[in-house]
Amino acid sequence: MTTTLSDYLDRENLERLKALKNKHVEEQVKRFLSLCKPKKTTVVTDEDWSINYVRQLAIEIEEELELNIKGHTIHWDSYRDQARDKGNTKVLVTPDMRMSKDINTIEREKGLEEVLGFLDGSMKGKECLVRFFTLGPKDSIFTICALQITDSAYVAHSEDILYRTGYEQFKKLRGKNDFFTFVHSAGKLDERNTTVEIDKRRIYIDLKDNKVYSVNNQYAGNSLGLKKLALRLAIYKANNEDWLSEHMLIMGVHPEGKDRVTYFTGAYPSACGKTSTAMIPGQSIVGDDIAYLRVDEEGKCKAVNIEQGIFGIITDVNPVDDPVIYEALTTPRELIFSNVLISDGKPYWLGMGLDEDDYPTEGLNHIGKWHKGMKDSHGNVVEVAHKNARYTIRLNELLNVDPHYNDPEGVVIQGILYGGRDSDTNVPISQALNWIHGVYTGATIESETTAATIGKAGVRSSSPMAIMDFMVVPFGRYLGNHIDFGSRLKKVPEVFSTNYFLKHEGEYTNEKLDKKVWLLWAEGRIHDEFEAIETPIGFIPYYNDLKMLFKQVFGREYTEKDYEIQFSIRVKKYLEKQDRIEKLYKDESDIPKSFWAVHNRIKESLMELERKSDVLTPSYFSSR
Q: Looking at residue 452, what is its pLDDT?
């Protein structure tokens, strides 16, 4: 039997959809309402009353509960749905599509049959929300329109905080199908309104159709199409065009005593200092997660934050280390907590600055009713809150938001940071010798585990550009696009490598806030205010420049002994890293020749230096 949109939408909602004058949107909505079979469908516009409807719905159906502080709500995901599901997040591929070996894939027709089968009838008895957003500021060369179809009011509410509304922007498509589509269903729910069939959780990315299917989940990393799922679609789009879609922060750096701001992007694997870099005191934040980069008409590198909010890890956010975020989390504003403990209408999370005795001994959290010492079905002690508990908040609620965070033109990027984590190799800050060396630097990021994470310290994992979890094109092609991007720039950003975790005799060689000095040195290099020492691995600072910055920023002395420990080139350790890089990329096709040229130059130089010593101080290089 042939059906029409009027079979699924009442007159008012049908009019809202028809007002877009886009048959492609209508076809998508009709197709998935027919498949998912909700009892009711609401088309949401950009008007305040329409958006407020979504917020109230989340509370009415108890996907969110109101807390004591005005505007604050709590949402809980299923106990087994607390993080991104890497195993069941797959790219749908056809025989003609080439992918890197580490990309999780499934044959397209097989994957579609499976996920559409799970979506069939998944919204029965529930209300479907049809949402429209933009990735990036509105009316911009960066703007990508996004259609979200979901039966989760929590998902729809979260996206209101994290993204810019896009109903009116869709009208400007003039009927074109130039948009991403995200279809999500939380599936069957239990009495706590959390997903039941976690074993049927699937997140499938269809690059051929600019679409993501997500079912049987609620955790935002799996359910919010516009976040890391859209990043994958954008990476594919960017690498078939002429721009970059990156897992990067954007921040403004404000040097002490100078009336200027210099914008940086930065890519950091998990636990390597991304958030702490974006929130360095005295600097401004444009975005903390995803950036689009383009070459403008003047040959400058411009970037925008595709989001307008933060979906941040709340663990260890406390008034001493994170005063800006902590203040925002403890005062009235629109804010969603997820997977923390609630007791008497107040949220509690791990590392919030309380003594153990100050935490409640019972309450509600991600397992349901909780009490101290409680164990789950596997015998594991259930902590006060999940270590991956989150907060969702708008950027403009933070005191350090940059005034240009929503600029449709973007900000001019003059510096790029690539941050890794190792205890014995990389110096705290170094500068790439040129753009291609900078691309190489990003492609060779490593992150070292700690004893607290897997029970064994010192295990290194490669995390090129901090983006491999989201890679959907052959990595060699991705690197080639980066190199080509730089060749089209008239003003090429300087590239820097950071490592905040270098140790000496078992202790960290710098304090937590010292990263501010490394950042200000990098900013000064961009403006030719500091000379630097050339080494095979890049430019490193002179002692006197760092001494001046430490005195200026912290009012404390920085000793030559500390400088020598931190900035000596550990030749043997760098050579070991070169070997790891060769093993990583030896079987990867299409790695650019210029990448290997940089690699071979560094390795040959280090091998020559190894004849002199395993470790060489900065003075060796400065005196040459």
A: 35
Reported as a single tens digit per residue, the pLDDT across 260-295 is 999 999 999 987 888 889 999 999 999 999 999 999
* Contact residues for 216 (Cβ-Cβ < 8 A; gap 6+): 118, 122, 185, 186, 187, 188, 195, 197, 198, 200, 201, 202
Residue 145 known to be catalytic = no
Band the pLDDT of 32: cuts 50, 70, 90. Answer: very high
Give the 3-state secondary structure of residue 239. Answer: helix
What pLDDT is recorded for position 451? 40
CA 468 to chain centre: 12
Q: What is the DSSP letter of 266?
A: E
Q: How confident is the model at residue 450 (pLDDT cuts 50, 70, 90)?
A: low
Question: What DSSP element (H or E) covers 171?
Answer: helix 167-171
Q: Which amino acid is at 429?
A: I
Give strand pairing partners of 263.
252, 413
- At position 113, the amino acid (one-letter code) is E
Which tokens belong to 163? Answer: 């993204």
pLDDT of residue 249: 97
Evaluate if residue 1 carries a pLDDT over 80: no
DSSP 10-27: -HHHHHHHHTT--HHHHH
Cα Rg, the chain, nearest whole Å: 25
Report the pLDDT averaged over residues 90-106.
Answer: 92
3-state DSSP call for residue 51?
Answer: helix
pTM to 2 decimals? 0.96
Q: What gap in Å lies between CA 36 and CA 120, rounded to an integer?
A: 5
The single residue listed with the structure tokens 């406390």 is: 318
Nearest-CA neighbor of 533 among 616, 424, 430?
430
575's tokens: 């050579």
Residue 118 CA to residue 188 CA, distance in Å, equals 11
Which among 36, 128, 145, 272 is annotated as catalytic?
Answer: 272
Rounded Cα distance between 435 and 415, Å, is 11
Whether the predicted pLDDT of 453 surpasses 60? no
**Cβ burial, residue 173 (10 Å; 0-12/13-18/19+):** middle
Owner of token pair 């508990």: 389
Query: How far apart are alpha carbons 342 and 62 in whole angstroms?
Result: 15
In sequence order, the 6+-apart residues with CB closer than 8 A to the CB of 433 are 534, 538, 539
Q: List, in order, residues 6 or more apart from 309 with CB less than 8 Å away.
A: 161, 162, 163, 392, 393, 394, 395
Sign of torsion, CA 332 333 339 345? Answer: positive
C-alpha neighbours within 13 Å on the C-beta side of residue 56: 6
Take residue 605 and report the two structure tokens written for it.
């130089």
Cβ count within 10 A of residue 28: 20
**CB burial readout 586-600, b (16+ within 10 A) else e:** eeeeebbebbeebbe
pLDDT above 70: percentage of residues in the chain: 98
Residue 176 scores a pLDDT above 80: yes
Residues paired with 73 in a beta bridge: 66, 336
Mean pLDDT value across the chain:
95
Query: What is the distance of C-alpha 161 from the center of its chain?
Result: 16
pLDDT digits (tens, 9 = 90+) for 194-214: 999 999 999 999 999 999 999
- Give residues with Cβ within 8 angstroms of 595, minimum separation 6: 436, 439, 440, 443, 479, 483, 585
Residue 420's nearest CA partner among 459, 446, 438, 399 is 446
DSSP 401: B
